[in-house]
Amino acid sequence: NFMLTQPHSVSESPGKTVTISCTRSSGSIASNYVQWYQQRPGSAPTTVIYEDNQRPSGVPDRFSGSIDSSSNSASLTISGLKTEDEADYYCQSYDSSNYVFGTGTKVTVL
Amino acid sequence: EVQLVESGGGLVQPGGSLRLSCAASGFTFSSYDMHWVRQATGKGLEWVSAIGTAGDTYYPGSVKGRFTISRENAKNSLYLQMNSLRAGDTAVYYCARGSPTGSYGMDVWGQGTTVTVSS
What we know:
- The complex is a heterodimer of chains A (110) and B (119).
- With 110 residues, chain A is mainly beta.
- Chain A contains no helices and ten strands.
- Chain A has strands at residues 4-5, 9-12, 18-24, 35-39, 46-49, 63-68, 73-78, 87-95, 98-101, 105-109.
- Helix content of chain B is 0%, strand content 50%.
- The mean pLDDT of chain B is 96.
- Classes of the chains: A mainly beta (110), B mainly beta (119).
- Chain A binds chain B through residues 32-33, 35, 37, 39, 43-47, 50-51, 54, 56, 90, 92-94, 97-104, and chain B through 35, 37, 44-47, 50, 58, 60, 94, 99, 101, 103-107, 109-112.
């Protein structure tokens, strides 16, 4: 089984851009899609990115996803930060009947 | 409106059993893979089990042999039978719908039900 490692926390001012990394420990990041979930305090997770870089309807285009095979990692970028973006973010992927979540990143909007 | 509503959580002693339920509405339940995901207080998300449309089931090593996922399509319901419970199973348990796009992700989540394992 593989692991997905994220930075524990990131913080930035409103209007700025943050990027959260998600590094896969073994196997190729490109071998299965990566999803990103947002979890606000006291709430259930919601999907902000699926299939590496696709946004569900209703998710603003300030959210974007990508993968980088050279670093074996995926990234979630949030541009034009708003206070409502303050939340925990988790990446997730799959391999061999095993669903793996990342360690989670707390985004603080200063 | 697509909705998932979990129930059945509560306080149980170590070694005990509990059965969680998830009522689905607003979509064709039988056409989707379904999952259980848990989150201990202050911790991250952990996948607990999955069931395919054909009834095939999958578990991580941490719960295999103790937990059983099942579904009853006629009742639009998902279940999780949890046996031999341990303190480490204490968490909020979420029911989640498998994404229909083939991404092996989850696209809709319930609000969760809390399981506490303690004497």
